[in-house]
Design brief:
The chain is mainly beta and 84 residues long. Helix content is 8%, strand content 18%. The N and C termini lie close together (7 Å). 0% of the residues are buried. The mean pLDDT is 76.
Length: 84
């Protein structure tokens, strides 16, 4: 989740579960150096940097598993879900 949704230093969630609209979509994406992506969202907010390591930890595909996880996480959000 983005910096508006999670406290940057503690990692504590700042928004209520279920408050992210199901209609939310990615509006733009831009690289940040060689280590992360920055997303713009359809509701107008665009805070947050998502590192490749973080995104790989969310991804259950076999291509991402060898680089980080040894097995898929117990719970995987649907591909369109933004709740983590």
């Amino acid at each position: 989740m983005c910096a508006s949704c999670v406290e940057e230093f503690t990692g504590v969630r700042k928004i209520a579960r279920g408050s992210i609209p199901a209609t939310l979509e990615r509006a733009s994406v831009a690289p940040i150096g060689n280590y992360a992506l920055h997303f713009g969202w359809s509701d107008g907010h665009d805070t947050g940097i998502y590192t490749f390591d973080y995104l790989r930890r969310l991804c259950p595909c076999s291509r991402c598993l060898p680089g980080g996880l040894k097995a898929p996480p117990d719970a995987i959000a649907e591909p369109w879900a933004f709740e983590v």
